[in-house]
Amino acid sequence: FSKNVANYNIDIKNKKIVSIDFEYNPHISSHEYNIKYCSECGVSIYENNVLSTYHFLIEDGSHKTGIAKHLIEKFEFGETKIINSVDLIKNLKEILKDADYFISHGMENEYNILIKNINKTKL
Fold this sequence. Notes:
This protein has about 120 residues and is of the alpha/beta class. It has helices at about 1-5, 65-75, 85-95, 105-120; strands at about 15-25, 40-45, 50-60, 80-85, 100-105. The termini are far apart.
């Protein structure tokens, strides 16, 4: 990770970099972005030269119980936590509040999911 960041001339010492990736129903439309269309969320946090990874299965999300075990077994970087969507959004808001950088795959959708759900969730 550090080697790749060096290519962008970013000094990552004393920086917190957060990466979030939602897995969601491919039929999500640009005006909805409801967290309940998401089945899982992966989070990586790089801080103080340490990488921490988290996998959340959204219990009130769009997954089917038949595939939940498969999703849990597929994550190879720690344990999966089953969490409801409101608590997930609260956790993500806390994680992001002091981040220096936020990166994501499919940034527009991830950003819109976060913003819409942070704004409507009482924290």
